[in-house]
Amino acid sequence: MGFGKGCHLHLIDGSAYIFRAYHALPPLSRKSDGLPVGAVAGFCNMLWRYLVENDASADAPTHAAVIFDYSSKTFRNEIYDLYKANRPEPPEDLRPQFPLTRDATRAFNLACIEVEDYEADDIIATLARQGREAGGRVTILSSDKDLMQLVGGGVEMLDPMKNRPIGLEQVEEKFGVGPDRVVDVQALAGDSVDNIPGAPGIGIKTAALLINEFGDLDTLLARAEEIKQPKRRQTLIDHAEQIRISRKLVLLDDQTPLEFGLDDLEVRDPDPEALLGFLNQMEFRTLTRRVAEKFDRDPPPLPEAPAPEVAAAPEPAGFDTTAYECIRDMAVLERWIADIHEAGFVALDTETTALDEMRAELVGISLAVAPGRACYVPLAHTVGEGDLFGGAALAEGQMDRDAALAALKPVLEDPAVLKILQNAKYDVKILARQGIDVAPIDDTMLLSYALHGGLHGHGMDALSDRYLNHQPIPIKTLLGSGKSARTFDKVSIDEATPYAAEDADITLRLWEAFKPQLHRARVTRVYETMERPLVPVLAAMEMAGVKVDRDVLSRMSNAFSQKMAGLEAEIHELAGETFNVGSPKQLGEILFDKMSLQGGKKGKTGAYATGADVLEDLAAEGHDLPARVLDWRQLSKLKSTYTDALQDHINPETGRVHTSYVISGASTGRLSSTDPNLQNIPIRTEEGRRIRTAFVAPEGRVLVALDYSQIELRILAHIAGIDALRDAFREGHDIHAMTASEMFGVPMDQMTSEVRRQAKAINFGVIYGISGFGLARNLRIPRAEAQGFIDRYFERFPGIRAYMDDTVAFAKEHGHVETLFGRRIHTPEINAKGPGAGFAKRAAINAPIQGTAADIIRRAMIRVPAAIADLPATMLLQVHDELVFEVDAGAVEDLVARVREVMEGAADPVVQLSVPLVVDAGQGANWAEAH
DNA sequence: ACGCTCACG
DNA sequence: GACGTACGTGAGCGTA
């Protein structure tokens, strides 16, 4: 068929596919001879998926070609010898794969095109032009911005990973101009990746501004004198030639000489023989099998493997992802459920459409009952695209979702069946939203945290690699990454099955590896009393969420905007030029180069430090500009991180903000909070504190906050056995004033706030593993003076010095330190040489104190639900030493009394503290008032 | 992707 | 004697 009206040409950016495949996949080599083939494997999977999707698509192309770069040298190097000069050479194990990807393309019976001296982009430009001129449709499968100049007049782009079209609107969003002016903008802005010089100091935004003002690049260069900003004007005049060269470099050549016509690109079905032959030669077992199934053929036998010279190390885990079962009907599911009851446990994993458990939709569930015996139950995979009028259609071959969940519910809730999960809180929340109350559970992430805290992260991929010597299928290979990512429901069931079932399989094997170690490491109590029971407690808190008043935030955002604009104008005025106040680099240059202020210090990256401490020093010397920048920074932080971002986190269904706590995030046992982080809502400045007024209780309810007073200092007093401190805490004295009195000999009734402030800094310093340097910097006093304070402190409280020395010695001997409750925090760097040693020492000194405090509040949180079960109250937030509740107005007193009792007694009965724990409480209509 | 800066305990 | 240094986090932004 000749190419013309009604025809549709696909131009596939082959080079981009190769690099994406290479980076998305772990290194993989052919078993028989070790030839690296990871990128080829990914490339073939992409092409196969492409063909299968076309098969099912009503909009399939009539013509198609895969285009590659011939080599890295092209005619552009004649124009500018540094073009792409800073591109690193392709990795050693990728190079031999380039010719194989051409072979692969031909094996798929797709036209494979490359032309010496031209880039793939030029060939794509040429074919796109030909297609357009012939009156057909052209789709470029690529997300490369350098191709965006081709969009329009029947040519469009499609991001192949996400199936997201890139049309006029997306181009304009990216470049601020239409496709016809993209080249002009690129010429001005340059490109550091391709080493296109452009105009220095001009980025895409400014370039678009200029082009839109003057119409096009030639006019702009001709009338450069008219540019208002003096710096910009000079830049354009000085670099006019360089800009013209840049345009030549970015402008694609749509006249590439080609030895074939569009008609030759007609889509042909692959020849099964040739395709299977190639895949088999590459030893891609899974894909070979899949392709064979599709063509209804038997997979060809694997080529005779030459006898290995040395006996290959046995695959310790023996993962066979092809052995996993996909469950598509009730009878099979019921057989699995019977097996689970028989085993008494099951490893379980859910697949969903998002990471946010409050919005994610359940797509499928995988189960494993023994190593290698795993299955996947697809529930909500879709095909095709949803549109305005409805969602995408359900894929064929799935059980009825509700029926499957109803069948699974009894076993998932059966107290006699242990459910084993990796990061259980996630799946518990997902299933809770389906009305399934998963219990009892074990969590491999938390097992690892109890066993290996401080050694490494506890994500599944890392654990599998480290303890099973197996690299799981990266989720990226299914979903893509970045903007082009798709959601799991869009993944075909065939692809999803090995991935999902493998996760359950790995979870089960990790559990078998970890569970017996708990006792040996003496962390059974840690896991059983401070990790595992926290999962349902946190799940409930996160699902409850906290009510946030959008109007309060939005009004604050507007006020901040106005103030920032005023400050920005003042700052530019003071600087004598406009610059990006938010750029530390530009600010440093203004302060220390242009204005020649003293005190400019460059960090390791060569940029001036412009942190708040530096700016404060400059402001104290009477300089206005740094003072204004400090104000601007504060507002900018409050606006972008809080008043703007928090609004985006308000769940539209609940009207509340649902954070997510990471149980195994911090090495010390603390929780961390993400998406959003509700553990760092401002409080220290008046302006910031107002943000807390947006955290509110609904009508008729009250927010109550209870926090431990000085918990870490109390723990230090207990652990180090400092009588003076203990007595002060027992008698309820002001601990910082007491420290000051002891150290400086000032009687308590003559205490000044300045002396007390210094003593407070020392008290905190001790907890952090004090040093003269650090204290000096914090108090802004000479180092010798700070060292004097520390010496006197240790003289007065020798037990503290002993605690520090003992703790470091313990860490050196055992490789870990412990909290009072037995939590182990590993200190792998403690015997390191060099500057790292100091870090490790201080961390080791701090960890038992911070960690014991973390243990105590964990214990309290676990006991709270039962203690308040009969009250109309909900626990919402934890901020390290504080718990926040929402409660009916009439029950405040009861709640405070109950929770205070739990919190103050949370160390009992495992540890009898020699200091009392004291809890302060506050209440109000919002979080600011509750303090 | 990484460093800087800054919010909290 | 020099080296860098307070402990633990997460998010947004600019830069490369």
UniProtKB/TrEMBL annotation:
> Where is the DNA-directed DNA polymerase family A palm domain positioned along the sequence?
688-891
Q: What does this protein do?
A: In addition to polymerase activity, this DNA polymerase exhibits 3'-5' and 5'-3' exonuclease activity.
Q: What is this protein called?
A: DNA polymerase I
Q: Which EC number applies?
A: 2.7.7.7
Which GO terms label this protein's molecular function in UniProt?
3'-5' exonuclease activity; 5'-3' exonuclease activity; DNA binding; DNA-directed DNA polymerase activity
| Protein's UniProt keywords contain Nucleotidyltransferase | yes
Q: What species was this sequence derived from?
A: Rhabdonatronobacter sediminivivens
Tell me the keywords, alphabetical order.
DNA damage, DNA repair, DNA replication, DNA-binding, DNA-directed DNA polymerase, Exonuclease, Hydrolase, Nuclease, Nucleotidyltransferase, Transferase
Report whether DNA damage shows up as a keyword of the record.
Answer: yes
InterPro entries in the record: 3'-5'_exonuclease_dom, 5-3_exonucl_a-hlix_arch_N, 5-3_exonuclease, 5-3_exonuclease_C_sf, DNA-dir_DNA_pol_A_CS, DNA-dir_DNA_pol_A_palm_dom, DNA/RNA_pol_sf, DNA_polI_H3TH
In what residue span(s) does the 5'-3' exonuclease domain sit? Answer: 4-268
> Family per UniProt?
Belongs to the DNA polymerase type-A family.
Q: Tell me the subunit arrangement.
A: Single-chain monomer with multiple functions.
